[in-house]
Specification:
By secondary structure, this protein is mainly α.
């Protein structure tokens, strides 16, 4: 195997690295030029008591379902 510093191949490695960096810079410039920034609307959620009651009802229903028979049975002894 030849040493790239002695044979003059280091110039090729530097050119390869520089070309990759230039391509990355060009892609970055292209994405910033052609990227259309959209304004995002902020949404305001109402904080009425009805929504809190619905959440509490869902929690009660999920607890009732968890108390029912289980779908899987756990083993008594682990292997």
């Amino acid at each position: 195997m030849q040493n790239p510093f002695e044979t003059g191949h280091i110039k090729n490695y530097i050119l390869l690295y520089a070309s990759v960096v230039i391509i990355m810079i060009l892609f970055f410039i292209a994405t910033t030029l052609f990227h259309d920034a959209k304004s995002i609307e902020t949404r305001v959620f109402s904080s009425d008591m009805n929504s809190l009651e619905l959440v509490e009802k869902r929690e009660k229903v999920s607890q009732d379902e968890s108390n029912q028979t289980k779908r899987f049975k756990l083993l008594q002894r682990s292997y």
